[in-house]
Design brief:
The chain folds into two domains: 63 residues; 114 residues, Immunoglobulin-like, CATH 2.60.40. Helices cover 36% and strands 19% of the residues. The chain is built from five helices and eight strands, in the order H-H-H-H-H-E-E-E-E-E-E-E-E. Helix 2 runs antiparallel to helix 3. The radius of gyration is 24 Å and the shape is elongated. This is J domain-containing protein. InterPro entries: DnaJ_C4 (IPR052763), DnaJ_domain (IPR001623), J_dom_sf (IPR036869). It comes from Neisseria dentiae.
Length: 251
Amino acid sequence: MAKRIRTHYDNLKVAQDAPIEVIRAAYRSLCKKYHPDQNRDNPDAERIMSLVNRSYAVLSDPEQRRAHDEWIAAQGAAEKPVSSPMPKNPSPEPGLFAQALYARRLWLGLLFFAALIGALFWLAGQQREAAADMPVARADTAPASYPEFAQYMAGYPVLAETGNGMVKIDNQANRSAVLAQIYPENGNTALRTIYIPPRADFTAFNLPSGNYRISYRQLADGSLENTVFTLSDGQTQAAVVQLESARAGVP
């Protein structure tokens, strides 16, 4: 029996056809249960919260959710057994008729297999196009509202998930909330977009090794700050980036 795939719906414990209100309520419930600020004695809290944040970022955005649904459908199609074009018990018809019958069955089987492969490639292309069309946010562009807890901002892509590196963005000493983005040090494409409330922190996982830049907007006074960090191969602990406090106007 094929192993069942795990989806973002599983991570949030909702059905695939759940409306956004149900997804949002499930996310808030899991945040209250697993948020690291409220589970400091639970070593798995940060890992679980990272999965929950990632799943909510995908399912709260219509385009990313559509691409995820297509991926689920493609996985289901790939797991269906493909019938062999060769009959297990060939018909006993002699001569040319038997050969023609076998050739016809072989041809139909090959056509079915080619159509299946083509459908999988098409679905993969649609998913790549959906990811490419995602808006790239900047820290100087303020969303209409902000969430309650530190998390990835809904509607923005979560990129570069091919490594084992992690970085803890520490805003504990700051009385201002921040909107932070992680970039390659010499790149202009935001890999992660994160909201962090005052007196809080956030850990980003699965980053490849390399040099990075964090650009963050102090939401209390509007100032824009930048800092850099490096992730090395084989690094087992999170790099820690301490954010500067807002300069003025924060009670």
